[in-house]
Design goal:
The complex is a heterotetramer.
Chain A lengths: L8 H21 L3 H26 L3 H30 L14
Chain B lengths: L2 H20 L3 H21 L3 H26 L13 H24 L17 H10 L2 H22 L19
Helix pairs in contact in B: 1-2, 2-3
Chain D lengths: L1 H25 L5 H25 L8 E11 L2 E10 L1 H24 L4 H20 L3 H10 L1 H11 L4 H34 L16 H18 L8 H8 L2 H26 L1 H27 L4 H21 L3 H32 L10 H4 L1 H15 L5 H16 L1 H25 L7 H4 L6 H19 L2 H18 L15 H8 L69
Antiparallel strand pairs in D: 1-2
Helix pairs in contact in D: 1-2, 1-4, 2-3, 2-4, 3-4, 3-10, 3-13, 3-19, 3-20, 4-5, 4-6, 4-10, 5-7, 6-7, 7-8, 7-9, 8-10, 8-11, 9-12, 10-12, 10-13, 11-12, 11-17, 12-13, 12-16, 12-17, 13-15, 13-16, 13-19, 13-20, 15-17, 15-19, 16-17, 16-19
């Protein structure tokens, strides 16, 4: 029965695409920067997932190594992002993204 | 790795991701995200990447989400804004359209996929083990490793500078700068 | 002998350097003395060279001296080289002789001027340039002298540059001369294009060698050169600068605008006699312009009230005579009149100078009268000048002017028309000179009491110069006694037409002229000027016509005396009767206004139109337009910078999708 | 020692000012006297080093001298870009003009420059290095680098020390020249690529690039690209509007260098690049450029007539004078090209002096409006005398350098086509008008403005700056032979290449470019068009003077019996004097 057949790589690709899209959509919709960061984390995770899946289906361990690199980038990004949010919050009480548009051209 | 387990676990991950997006309260969102990360971790397990599974739980769920929660607590965000109460309705439409386009492309690519790998390759015993990853990391990918260390250094420096209370540099008259943000 | 030929022009140059460099440090007397001695030195050298020239056999009377190569590229060769032949000998002696006298005169005249050394520096510079002009052995070096004298006349006319009228006159002189030089320049280029060299020797050899084929090009060349001559010698179209040049100090007017510079045109035409004889059309143009200018200027001189303006127009008229003589093919007569004119016109100008000196620089003859009492020497010498210019024997004017009038009829290209012009102008000349002399020196004194009080005879340095010039004016005529009179008085062979014979190698004889004219295309009959063969030896006709001119001249002087001494009012009465004629003559036929309206004002307008219109509007418009356009376009793109983070994110995502889409296909 | 001098002099002349500039930048800002002294010393040393060039220059040769070639950049093994420097008759005087005018300009700017002296003198020395580089470079890349490098200091000199609208003027100057030179860069690359395609040799060396076979369209385009860059620089008629702005806003010394040397790069470029590299295209476009030149002459003069500002007047007069130079170059007669060359040198001297004069009264009265002055000759006699001499030099009075240049150009253009000379020579009249009118309104007349009464006359330094320039014009005017002899061989070579080049004889159908075809039956005189440095192109007759046998002057026939002196020969009636001998009067020292 189909249920116990092995899953093709395509399935993982679709799953990863889905997660990535949800993260992107979430980022565009929400106004709260923290949630936006979380969405970014989600997108990064989707990437990781695809890496690991590819490593597994191709039998090459390097895929998993790249996960580490993605993680460090994620960590760095969160650190700096949150620091920015904290700095912004200190200047202006709200942290609503739309208020901060002084950089208008 | 059968369709059943795959669908169950991925379903959990997707549902909790949706929870993050539609959560009214940021903290709820964070919790959903943690759950999603754990689901993804289990997926890694299914893909016989045990070490990554552990790292995922430790780093993402453990460190990053804790950081998020910590910042949320610091800024005591009450989640004033409604999930989708974005002022610009058009914004929502654009997001959905782009999301759909992206997903469509992903699916179309997979469908066209050419020689899609239907079956996972034979893998040696210690495939996902730390030794295996360690050797790969410190031989073939040494340069990226060093570069990531630089990235982290930069991030740390940035975070320290940004988070420092503005105006802490000693005033000409030597008195420590006042605490309040100018 | 050749050795110190180059000293003649170098001495004045030395004088210039001394006066220009150390002038203000030297005491006045020394700097004046240096200037005069230098010119006298050149005069002595010139005369010595002249004597040596006379010693040489007639055919070989040329001394060459090449100093150094000047401009030589490809086929074009030109050197700074001097040539001393009879024609340039005459010119050098006139320039340095009369020049020296005028330098001495200006010692006294300019005594009180603050910029005394600078004046003498300019005068020496002028002498240097004039000597280069007459001693040059090729057209280019002559052009150097040509523009040099133009420059010096600019500097000297505008010497008292504080006066706006003086600096205007100076600039006008230079620019009108420059128009003439433009023609001369083109003529030189034409010569080189046709003959491959600018040396007189080479050019004239080629013209003489083959007169027939070259006539058309040579006519072109001669007309262009003549444009230069009219510019320099103030003939019809380009004479407007000479009357205004009277703004300069009087010695300047005497030296430059009477004796030397203005004769440069006549010298050039005489120098290129072979080319002009090879171009009958050009020759006739010269004669016509000469005749017209003579009559035209004489009529204007009738009504002028400024003593120097009358003399200026008289100079233009006499120059017209010289050109008429050359145009008739008798260059020797033209050059002879040039020499005698230098004497008596310089005399008249210096006389006018001493009158002005006495009348404390007032030049209006209506406020003069009866000055003979106070200025006897000036008066007598002025009378000598007047008689000379009117052509009364035994004064030099009679011999030279009568020779011209006769040769304008009997010359190779002479004709009755020129003769009539000559005689009428002679009468007019006699009349306006008589009017001038009577008004100034005779009749009741009309000057203001205060001026009368200052009337004094000019100092010895000026008086002696006047006397010397008067002697020159009266004796110069005997140098060239026409053959008809010589036979009458059975004079020895050497004395008949001595001047013409002396000049013959460098300006050609009647026979040579006839030979060349017949050989050139277009032959001898150009309009009314015909090749006169037979008249050369018809003594009776010559005496008859001479008699007529003499009678007219004497009559004019007597009517002058009657109008201005015995019945002083008649002059103004006549003027009232013919108001229109009087006003046109008074305003010099409105030529100045015409030039200003037709050339000066449109030129400026064009300049403005080109500058404000084309330069600023068109070109700047385009350039700045491009700049503004880029600014506008860049403002369009600013709209995309909304400042909302999410817009940028959407942009990034859309970009990603687009890339994937492209890669997908 | 001689050999070392020959090899290294050009490099030293180019880089010594650069080194001096760097040293100046290291000096403390306050030590103004030291900075000025050092800058002047550097410029004078450079000048002193360049003077032997004039004497050691072998005037008989047409090829490059004082050469140095060092491989610099290898493209796939071949030394494509080389540090190749050398000068021939044309660039010799340009280098001398550069060193001479730079020294004069630096000395002249002691009075006028009061702020940021250190940077100013450093920039001036950089400028000198850039200019010298342009004139000695024989490698297209080297040339282009110096061509662009020279722009930068000039931009800052105008932009920082200039007048009110200096920013606008500096930007306009920079962009105008930049656009032109970008086109040139493209043309250089195309040229090198074409050469590579044909000969398989990648080289940027000018001497080897002169025989590049290419189709007619290609040569036209390349000529236009190079031509536009140089036309903007000259400046030729339609592209001249940057010059008045740049001059008016530039400080005095900047104007001197801008007018004295920078403008010559355009005409030098035409002579060095456009004519030898693209002879057929030059012949094709010659009438156009001649027309533009003549328009430039008359247009420049007319507009100068009505300028209220002295510097603008002198700027437009430069447009007019350089129109004469370009006319001289494009009439392709040897006299014309020599005249153009001398005109370039004399314009450098006379206009440099003119700008210094204008600068001097600007320093005293801080205004350049002509109406502000009047009658200052009485107050400043020395200044008046020098200004008049300089004006006469720029009008082209004989025995001054302007005349030599203009006469040869007009003569050359008359030989090409009399109408060119007629229209161009009207410039002589117009230049007299606007110059003398300016002199009258400035020097002569009553002193109308009270401030003019107190003006001080020239001090020793100002005299020391002006007198050498005036002396230069008089020297070239009176005895131009040494200058002409050195220029002639190199120009004769270029004239030989350009003159016979018909503007595009029929383009052969075959792939062979027309140049290839024409070579077989082209006269032996041009067997090889590259500048063989060693082999002289054709064995010259004994005298190195190239006989420009101008066709019209063939009429010397001595066969007729009558020598012009002895007109009275057999057939004419016996005159009283004896027949003249036929021999020419004794010539002395012919």
């Amino acid at each position: 029965m189909i249920w116990n057949a092995t899953v093709p790589f395509g399935a993982w690709a679709v799953l990863s695409g889905l997660l990535f899209t949800m993260g992107a959509a979430g980022f565009l919709v929400r106004r709260d920067p923290i949630v936006m960061f979380m969405c970014i984390e989600l997108m990064l995770n989707a990437g990781n997932l695809l890496f690991v899946a590819a490593a597994r289906y191709l039998g090459v361990v390097d895929g998993q190594v790249y996960v580490f690199f993605v993680m460090t980038v994620a960590a760095a990004e969160v650190a700096v992002g949150l620091a920015i949010i904290v700095a912004i919050f200190r200047r202006k009480t709200t942290i609503d993204v739309d208020e901060m548009s002084e950089m208008r051209g | 790795m059968t369709w059943l387990t795959f669908l169950i676990v991925s379903g959990i991950a997707v549902i909790f991701a949706g929870g993050l997006i539609f959560s009214r309260n940021a903290v709820h969102g964070a919790m959903c995200l943690v759950a999603s990360f754990c689901a993804i971790a289990t997926l890694f397990l299914l893909l016989s990447a045990e070490f990554i599974f552990v790292v995922q739980i430790a780093v993402y769920a453990g460190a990053i989400m804790v950081l998020f929660l910590f910042v949320m607590m610091l800024l005591n965000v009450q989640g004033q804004e409604g999930a989708l109460a974005g002022r610009a309705p058009g914004q929502l439409l654009v997001a959905l359209a782009l999301g759909a386009a992206l997903l469509g492309q992903a699916v179309w690519l997979v469908a066209r996929g050419g020689e899609i790998i239907s079956r996972p390759a034979r893998i040696p015993a210690g495939f996902g083990s730390p030794e295996d990853i360690g050797t790969a990391l410190f031989t073939r990918n040494l340069l990226p490793f060093e570069i990531t260390s630089l990235v982290l250094l930069a991030a740390m420096a940035g975070a320290v500078v940004l988070a420092r209370k503005a105006g802490l540099s000693p005033k000409p008259n030597g008195a420590p700068a006042g605490g309040k943000p100018e | 002998m050749r050795a110190y030929l180059w000293l003649i022009p170098l001495l004045p140059l030395l004088g210039v350097l001394i006066n220009a460099w150390f002038g203000h440090r030297l005491p006045r007397r020394v700097s004046g003395a240096v200037a005069c001695l230098v010119v006298f030195g050149s005069f002595v050298l010139g005369v010595a060279a002249l004597i040596r020239l006379i010693g040489m056999p007639p055919g070989q009377r040329i001394i060459y001296h090449k100093l150094f190569p000047w401009i030589s590229t490809g086929g074009f060769e030109s050197a700074v080289a001097l040539m001393y032949d009879p024609l340039s000998a005459v010119m050098v002696c006139v320039v340095t002789g009369v020049g020296f006298l005028i330098h001495v005169y200006s010692l006294g005249y300019m005594a009180h001027d603050p910029r005394y050394p600078r004046f003498f520096a300019y005068m020496n510079l002028f002498t240097f340039a004039m000597l280069m002009l007459v001693l040059a052995d090729n057209f280019l070096l002559m052009f150097v002298g040509w523009e040099g004298v133009g420059l010096c006349s600019y500097l000297l006319i505008g010497f008292w540059f504080e006066r706006k009228s003086a600096s205007d006159a100076g600039m006008k002189a230079f620019i009108v001369n420059r128009v003439g030089d433009f023609g001369f320049l083109l003529g030189m280029m034409f010569i080189f294009a046709v003959f491959g060299s600018l040396r007189f020797h080479d050019v004239f050899k080629q013209v003489a060698a083959d007169p027939a084929t070259l006539t058309l090009t040579v006519t072109g060349i001669c007309l262009l050169l003549f444009v230069g001559a009219t510019g320099k010698s103030a003939q019809i179209p380009l004479y407007v600068w000479l009357p205004d040049a009277m703004e300069g100090p009087t010695p300047v007017s005497a030296l430059i605008h009477a004796a030397t510079m203005v004769t440069a045109g006549v010298y050039m035409v005489a120098r290129c006699w072979i080319m002009f004889l090879n171009a009958p059309l050009a020759l006739t143009v010269v004669a016509c312009i000469g005749a017209l200018t003579a009559l035209f200027a004489a009529t204007i001189a009738l009504v002028q009230n400024d003593i120097k303006r009358v003399l200026a127009y008289s100079t233009i008229s006499q120059l017209g005579y010289m050109f008429m003589a050359c145009g008739a093919g008798v260059f020797a007569a033209g050059v002879f009149h040039l020499m005698t004119h230098a004497f008596f016109k310089a005399l008249l100008f210096l006389g006018a100078g001493s009158v002005m000196h006495a009348m404390s620089d007032d030049t209006d003859i209506r406020r003069m009268g009866g000055l003979m009492k106070w200025l006897p020497v000036t008066g007598v010498t002025f009378w000598v000048g007047t008689l000379a210019i009117s052509g009364i024997p035994p004064f030099s004017g009679f011999f030279s002017k009568d020779e011209i009038i006769w040769s304008s009829l009997a010359g190779p290209m002479g004709s009755w028309v020129f003769w009539v012009f000559g005689v009428v102008t002679a009468a007019l000349t006699a009349f306006y000179m008589a009017r001038l002399t009577f008004k100034v020196f005779h009749g009741q004194p009309r000057m203001s009491g205060e001026q009368k009080h200052h009337l004094h005879e000019s100092p010895p340095s000026m008086a002696w110069v006047l006397i010397l010039l008067a002697v020159g004016a009266s004796l110069a005529g005997f140098l060239n006694i026409p053959p008809a009179i010589a036979h009458l008085l059975h004079l020895p062979e050497r004395w008949t037409a001595a001047f013409t014979n002396f000049l013959e190698p460098s300006v050609g004889t009647h026979e040579q002229a006839v030979y060349l004219l017949e050989a050139s295309v277009g032959g001898s009959q150009i309009g009314f000027a015909k090749l006169a063969h037979g008249l050369q030896h018809n003594a009776a006709l010559e005496f008859g016509l001479m008699g007529i001119t003499l009678a007219l001249a004497a009559g004019a002087i007597l009517t002058g005396r009657w109008m201005y001494v015995s019945r002083p009012g008649t002059g103004t009465a006549l003027a009232r009767k013919l108001p229109f004629l009087f006003r046109t003559l008074q305003n010099k036929y409105y030529l100045d206004e015409f030039y200003k309206a037709v050339i000066v004002r449109p030129g400026m307008a064009l300049g403005n139109a080109l500058w404000r219109g084309f330069d600023v509007l068109v070109i700047e418009g385009i350039v700045n337009g491009i700049a503004i356009a880029t600014a506008i376009i860049s403002r369009l793109f600013r709209v995309f910078q909304t400042g909302y983070v999410r817009n940028y994110a959407a942009g990034i995502l859309a970009g990603a999708i687009l890339i994937i889409w492209v890669l997908m296909r | 020692m001689q050999e070392f001098y020959n090899r290294s002099i050009l490099t030293v002349l180019t880089f010594l000012p650069m080194v001096a500039a760097l040293l100046i930048l290291l000096m403390p800002r306050g030590a103004v006297i030291a900075i000025r002294g050092f800058a002047l010393a550097a410029a004078l040393v450079n000048l002193a080093l360049s003077v032997p060039l004039f004497f050691l220059f072998r005037s008989a040769e047409a090829g490059m001298q004082f050469e140095l070639q060092v491989p610099w950049v290898y493209l796939s093994g071949q030394p494509a870009i080389t540090y190749h420097v050398g000068i021939d008759g044309i660039s010799l005087f340009m280098v001398l003009l550069t060193t001479f005018l730079s020294a004069i300009a630096i000395a002249g700017s002691f009075g006028g420059i009061r702020t940021r002296e250190r940077e100013y003198y450093a920039l001036m020395l950089f400028l000198e290095a850039g200019m010298a580089g342009v004139f000695v470079a024989l490698d297209l890349v080297l040339f282009y680098t110096f061509w662009e490098a020279m722009l930068i200091p000039m931009y800052f000199i105008i932009g920082v020390w200039g007048g009110q609208r200096r920013i606008y003027a500096a930007v306009k100057f920079f962009l105008y020249t930049m656009i032109g030179s970008l086109l040139m860069l493209v043309a250089i690359l195309v040229l090198v690529w074409l050469n590579y395609q044909h000969t398989g040799v990648r080289t940027f060396d000018i001497l080897q690039l002169s025989a590049v076979p290419m189709t007619r369209a290609a040569q036209n385009l390349l000529f236009l690209a190079f031509g536009l860059a140089f036309a903007i620089k000259v400046p030729m008629f339609p592209f001249h509007t940057w010059l008045p702005d740049a001059h008016v806003e530039a400080p005095t010394a900047g104007s001197v260098i801008l007018a004295g040397v920078l403008l010559k790069m355009g005409t030098y470029g035409f002579l060095r690049f456009c004519l030898p590299l693209f002879p057929e295209a030059s012949a094709a476009f010659a009438p156009l450029l001649i027309a533009l030149a003549i328009i430039g002459i008359i247009y420049g003069a007319l507009v100068a007539l009505v300028q209220p500002d002295m510097k603008k007047l002198v700027a437009y007069s430069s447009v007019s004078h350089l129109g004469v130079a370009v006319l001289g170059i494009f009439v392709f007669t040897l006299q014309g090209m020599m005249g153009g060359m001398v005109q370039m040198i004399s314009h450098g001297l006379s206009t440099g002096a003119l700008f210094l004069c204008v600068g001097m009264i600007y320093e005293r009265r801080h205004t350049r409006e002509i109406s502000e002055f009047g009658g200052i000759w009485a107050v400043m006699p020395k200044y008046g005398a020098l200004l008049i001499m300089v004006t006469l030099a720029s009008i082209g009075l004989p025995f001054m350098s302007g005349f030599v240049g203009e006469w040869l150009v007009f003569l050359g253009s008359w030989l090409a086509n009399p109408w060119y000379a007629v229209f161009a020579a009207t410039g002589v009249i117009l230049s007299a008008c606007y110059m003398l009118w300016m002199i009258q309104r400035v020097l002569q007349g009553e002193i109308t403005h009270e401030q003019n009464r107190g003006l001080k006359d020239l001090n020793l330094r100002e005299m020391a700056v002006l007198v050498p320039l005036v002396a230069g014009t008089i020297w070239i005017g009176v005895y131009p032979k040494p200058v002409l002899d050195r220029i002639e061989p190199s120009l004769a070579r270029i004239q030989e290449i350009v003159a016979p080049a018909q503007p595009f004889a029929e383009d052969p159908a075959g792939p062979m470019s027309f140049r290839g075809v024409r070579d077989e039956e082209s006269p032996p005189a041009r067997t090889s068009q590259t500048y063989e440095r060693q082999v002289v192109v054709q064995p010259r007759d004994s005298s190195h003077r190239v006989r420009n046998d101008n066709p019209a002057a063939h009429r010397v026939r001595n066969d007729s019996p009558m020598s012009f002196r002895g007109v009275r020969d057999e057939e004419s009636p016996p005159a009283q004097t004896s027949g003249a001998p036929n021999n020419a009067p004794q010539e002395s020292g012919r």
